[in-house]
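Key result, reporting period 2: structure in, sequence out.
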């Protein structure tokens, strides 16, 4: 897949500095950042779903004693 992304001059300078600090090419740094952002977005959605389930009292709840008894 090929993506074309436009950055402001300030953002491009920032990305270049970050890539240099990571000892990566700008292209590799940007690709890795996009992949990381996509994974982070999926994880945040998972956390949001779990939070909603918790708020709606959905799920299984155990006391510490019940957990300790299960470990035996």
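The corresponding designed sequence is given below.
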């Amino acid at each position: 897949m090929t993506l074309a992304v436009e950055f402001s001059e300030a953002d491009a300078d920032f990305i270049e500095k970050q890539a240099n600090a990571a000892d990566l090419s700008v292209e590799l740094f940007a690709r890795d950042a996009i992949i990381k952002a996509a994974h982070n977005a999926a994880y945040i959605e998972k956390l949001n779903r779990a939070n909603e389930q918790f708020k709606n009292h959905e799920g299984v709840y155990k006391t510490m004693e019940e957990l300790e008894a299960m470990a035996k």
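Residues 39-72 form one domain. Residues 18 and 24 are 9 Å apart (CA to CA). This case is discussed further under Risks and Mitigation.
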